[in-house]
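Supplementary notes for students who missed Thursday's class. We covered one full example, reproduced here. Read the sequence, then the structure, then the short commentary at the end.
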Amino acid sequence: MNYVRVLVGEATFHGREPLTYSHSTSLKPGQLVTVPLRSKQVLGVAVADAAKPLFNVKPISGVVDAHLLPSQLLHLLDWMREYYPAPLGVITQLFLPKALPKKPLPAQQPSAATQISTLPALTPEQKEAVSAINTPGLHLLHGETGSGKTRVYIELAARALKASKS
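Structure (token representation):
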């Protein structure tokens, strides 16, 4: 039997330290797991192996195979729990997915070029703005909400990508 320290992602958990759970195998730090907390199942993050405690522990209910938090996020999570006076469960929730995908994502997402080609044509005012912005210097695009500023930005970004610029 292996023992694992788990940060539980539940807002009602106000402890300052990870909880200890048991599992049949050793888990990697950053592994997402489901664990029992009081009367419900919650998502958590395995952070380290633990020595056998002197008290009875609950077993980990499940391991989310495809999800592992990178070590940089674990370091950030550890820093945040030391720095901020928020409950550990609330801080841990910030690093967990809101919902785990139930089915795989489609293999092909529409490319940016496909999405850009379906945009509406530029209005004469937008064409004028794009022409002005293509001249050297600083530019401020000003207009009312809904006047089409974002369409100008998309056009400029598409032109930059087409010219192999970043």
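Commentary. The radius of gyration is 25 Å. The chain has a mean pLDDT of 87. If anything here is unclear, bring it to office hours.
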